[in-house]
Structures are given as structure tokens and as C-alpha cells.
Write a structure and sequence with these properties.
The complex is a heterodimer of chains A (91) and B (390).
Chain A lengths: L9 E3 L3 E6 L2 E6 L4 E5 L2 H9 L6 H7 L5 H15 L3 E3 L3
Antiparallel strand pairs in A: 1-5, 2-3, 3-4
Helix pairs in contact in A: 1-2
Chain B lengths: L1 E3 L9 H6 L7 E5 L25 H13 L4 E5 L9 H10 L3 E6 L6 H8 L4 E6 L5 H8 L3 H14 L6 E6 L7 H10 L3 E6 L6 H8 L3 H14 L33 E2 L4 E3 L10 E4 L5 H8 L1 H6 L14 H4 L4 H6 L15 H7 L23 H4 L8
Parallel strand pairs in B: 2-3, 2-8, 3-4, 4-5, 5-6, 6-7
Antiparallel strand pairs in B: 8-9, 9-10
Helix pairs in contact in B: 4-6
The chains are: A alpha+beta (91), B alpha/beta (390).
Chain lengths: 91, 390
């Protein structure tokens, strides 16, 4: 998997639905019929609002993520991108 | 299924959240009818005859509205044979138009080329064809004469219509465990995905479980095969009790009954899971107990299942964390205590308990039996010309 590029623009994947939960959220892709668990509320908040920001980094910062957490979120977002739960958009 | 976690965040494990139950199921099974044109010997729901109390089209639509409001992503529709309902295609369209994805299980008898085209065109629909033998001989012994050909014909129609990754669903038995590679080849041939699930002693399955459930050696073989195939082969989380052989299999690895899954039966009864159609696991009815959401959120049974469970004798086992005592329904219908090992415990503790049951000890019977009543055996059951003399 190539490193997730925080400085590009992203959005929730086509055909993907999010359902907030106490632990974070469930994400389901109607295309791949794959279910993923977003294991924190902050990650859910970032994913939900990705399309509103010019970059992944901006969405993370707006949600209050910084420092080592940002690195962890980047890994999590990378996995979501690799499975089509989020996708790159033209900024 | 995968868990995406920023490292370091989960003080509480995900599985703990699930065991405490969610506000809505992750997915659920909905048996639309007890009517079926087949009479499989292991039918979980003892299907055959339609129940006259079946939910009406209106009532089914109301269930779908609730699932949409609860953000249930998809529902597994089964039966019986769901496509024998006259309003089946209408309900399918209604669900997908309301953002409730549908995966439905069928024996394939109604999957014509035209229907296959229609299914392939809808992203929100997935189809699961049941097949319990990779050869007609093995399949038809369980599912009935001609059912292998019917299933294969349906798969051909789906492939020809361009339906990708539909499911071929196999209940693994003593007789077909040797055919796992052959099933995989059939799935690959059709651009389909293989799904292997566990034979449960539920419904009519209780009558054949002793002869058909895999032997201990076969279970080991099955486990190794599943590990080798990883996420390529689906299991509906059926085999988490086998994790005691070594590494855990992909999936949640826990019993989701009443916590993240449940069953709605054709008359609106809600059970903890599809393998537990018995009064002991009946949570309520959507007609009388505040709709589906009312049952899911308020049922005493579900509240109890979401509370701490005792693992009993299993708690001292080093594999308890991954196996968690196995399947509640499998224990219940084989007459074993719920707070002890699964009858197919990988370490053999279940076998010992089964052997220790009193001869003739009664095991719980399913709450309902919709099997078609078989007429007394006559010569012409074997050969229609038996008593015909020209």
C-alpha cells in the first residue's frame, strides 16, 4: 500500500454509507459489500467531513488532531482508501 | 470485515461494544415466508408450508421503513424460498429504493435469464444460491432430486447477466467437506464468491445433525482450508469456535445473537438469531411489541444477552478469549448447557458431553414446524407406475 497522501483532497467513497456508533462508526460499501469499523469518534468526524476540506490534513486539523495522533489517523485513512471507503477527489 | 483504528485509542475493545449490543443490528436475517418448493433435510426453519399469519406486503414495507430509519445497511432475506412470495420483487425494489441493501438466499428455481438481468442491474442487491454438494449426488441427497441442476442453471443465468461476486452458499457436512476445492472451482467458474457455513442442529437440522455434522478430523481439515483461503471465502462468522485450533478466522469472532444480529420470521416474531427459532430465544413480535425497533431496543431477552455472560467451565480454557464458548444455538439444540463448550469444541470437550447425555434424553424441539406432512409411504411414491397394470 502506498502511503496515504494527507495533502490531497478526499471524500467518502461512492456507494459508501456511514452509521455513527458510540465507539466511532460503521462504514459499509454497497459496491464491495464490505463492512469496516471506524474505531474512534474523531476518525468518524474526519471521514464524514472530508469532502468539506481542501485536504485530508485540513479535515484532521479541523477535528482537533495533531502530533502523533495525526500519524495514526493517516494510517487509518490509508486503509480506508485502499478498501474504497474513501476516495480521492479533484480539489 | 475490518477494523480501522487509530492506534492507541481503544481502551475498550470493539468486541466489548458489540457484546453490549448496538442501537441497531449490523445486519439481520429476515425469513419472508415458510413456504418452500424444496424440503431440505437440514432446513433451519423447518420450512415447507406457508404460514397463514405471514406478514402482509404493507407490514413488510413498514419493517423496511424501520430498517431505513435505524440505518441497517442490508438485510439477509431468506425463508423458506423467499421468491415464492408474489410480492417478493416488489419488496426487493422497495428496500433498495429505501437504502436498505438486500442479500437474498434462494435455491435458484425462479432465477430466469430475465430476473438475472434485473438483479445484475441493481447495485444494492446480492444473491446467494444455496448448494450443498459440488456433485448432484451429494447435493440432491440433502436438498432433493434435481436441486443441483436448478442451482447450477441459476448460477449460469447470473453469470451470463454479468452479475459479479454473487454468493454460492454451502452448509458444510460430513459428506461435502471433501468437496471444498470443487465448490471453490464452481464459484470461480461463475465469477461468484464462495460462502461456507456451519451445519446447525436447528429446525429439521436437529434430525440429521448426528449423521451429517463433520467429524473432528474433518473439522480440522475445514479449519486449515479456511485459514488457507482467508478473506476469499466468506463464512458468516460461523466457525469462530474453531479458532481454538490456532489463529482466529476472519470476522468478529463472537456470537452476535441479539447484540448485533437477529432474525425476523415470516409472522413477525423476532428471534435472537436465525439458528434459534425456539421460544427460549423469542424476543417479541413486531405486530404487538412496538415494531422491530421496539423489540430490538426493549426486549428483556436481548437485554439479558447484552449483559455479562458466564462461560462456565470454558472460562478456564486458554482459548476462551477467541472461541467464547461457541454457538449458543448449537449447544441448546443438542441439549448441552449454554455456559459450557460447543458440541463441536475443537478441543473435544463437546464430544465428551454429548457422549455423556442419557440415552433417549429429550433435546429441545423447534417452536414451529412448517414441514409438509408426508403421506404414508405407498408403492407409487417410489414409482408412479407401481400398481398400474395395463
Amino acid at each position: 500500500m502506498t502511503e496515504f497522501d494527507l495533502d490531497r483532497a478526499w471524500r467518502v467513497g461512492a456507494g459508501v454509507a456511514l452509521r455513527p456508533e458510540r465507539f466511532g462508526a460503521l462504514a459499509y460499501s454497497f459496491n464491495s459489500r464490505r463492512l469496516s469499523f471506524l474505531k474512534s469518534r474523531r476518525l468518524y468526524e474526519i471521514v464524514r467531513t472530508l469532502a468539506e476540506y481542501p485536504s485530508g490534513r485540513a479535515a484532521c486539523e479541523a477535528a482537533g488532531a495533531a502530533g502523533t495522533e495525526l500519524a495514526q489517523l493517516r494510517t487509518a485513512l490509508g486503509t480506508l482508501a485502499a478498501t474504497g471507503m474513501i476516495e480521492e477527489r479533484v480539489a | 470485515m475490518s477494523a480501522i483504528a487509530p492506534a492507541g485509542t481503544p481502551a475498550v475493545r470493539l468486541v466489548d461494544h458489540f457484546e453490549a449490543g448496538l442501537d441497531a443490528p449490523i445486519c439481520l436475517t429476515w425469513e419472508l415466508t415458510y413456504a418452500c418448493n424444496l424440503a431440505c433435510v437440514h432446513c433451519l426453519s423447518s420450512s415447507g408450508r406457508r404460514d397463514p399469519r405471514e406478514l402482509s406486503t404493507e407490514e413488510c414495507r413498514a419493517v423496511i421503513d424501520e430498517l431505513e430509519a435505524m440505518q441497517v445497511f442490508y438485510v439477509n432475506i431468506g425463508g423458506g424460498e423467499p421468491t415464492v412470495r408474489r410480492d417478493f420483487w416488489e419488496l426487493l425494489d422497495y428496500a433498495t429504493a429505501h437504502h436498505v441493501g438486500v442479500k437474498f438466499s434462494t435455491n435458484g428455481s425462479r432465477i430466469t435469464p430475465q430476473i438475472a438481468e434485473r438483479l445484475a442491474a441493481n447495485d444494492y442487491v446480492d444473491v446467494q444460491i444455496s448448494l450443498d454438494g459440488a456433485t448432484p449426488a451429494v447435493n440432491d441427497r440433502v436438498r432433493g432430486t434435481g436441486s443441483y441442476d436448478t442451482a447450477l442453471r441459476a448460477m449460469g443465468h447470473l453469470r451470463d447477466a454479468g452479475m459479479r461476486n454473487f454468493k454460492i452458499s454451502v452448509v458444510v457436512t460430513r459428506e461435502n467437506v471433501a468437496e471444498l476445492d470443487a465448490f471453490k472451482a464452481i464459484a470461480d467458474d461463475h465469477g461468484a464468491q464462495l460462502r461456507i457455513t456451519r451445519l446447525r442442529p436447528s429446525g429439521r437440522g436437529a434430525d440429521v445433525w448426528d449423521e451429517l455434522h463433520p467429524t473432528a478430523d474433518q473439522q480440522r481439515e475445514l479449519y486449515d482450508w479456511l485459514v488457507a483461503h482467508g478473506e476469499d471465502v466468506l463464512t458468516g462468522d460461523s466457525f469462530f469456535h474453531l479458532s481454538a485450533y490456532g489463529q482466529a478466522l476472519p470476522g468478529l469472532g463472537m456470537c452476535g445473537a441479539g447484540r448485533v444480529v437477529c432474525l425476523i420470521d415470516p409472522i413477525g416474531d423476532v428471534y435472537a438469531c436465525p439458528f434459534a427459532i425456539h421460544d427460549a430465544f423469542l424476543a417479541g413480535n413486531i405486530r404487538t411489541d412496538g415494531g422491530f425497533a421496539g423489540v430490538w431496543r426493549e426486549s428483556e431477552l436481548f437485554t439479558r444477552l447484552r449483559g455479562p455472560q458466564s462461560g462456565g467451565a470454558c472460562e478456564s480454557c486458554s482459548f476462551y478469549d477467541s472461541c467464547r464458548g461457541g454457538c449458543m444455538a448449537a449447544k441448546f439444540f443438542t441439549g448441552l448447557p449454554l455456559d459450557g463448550p460447543d458440541p463441536e469444541c475443537a478441543l473435544g470437550h463437546g464430544e465428551a458431553l454429548l457422549a455423556g447425555r442419557q440415552a433417549g434424553q429429550a433435546t429441545p424441539r423447534p417452536a414451529q414446524d412448517h414441514s409438509r406432512v408426508r403421506p404414508p409411504a405407498r408403492d407409487c411414491d417410489e414409482n408412479p407406475l407401481a400398481v398400474w397394470t395395463p
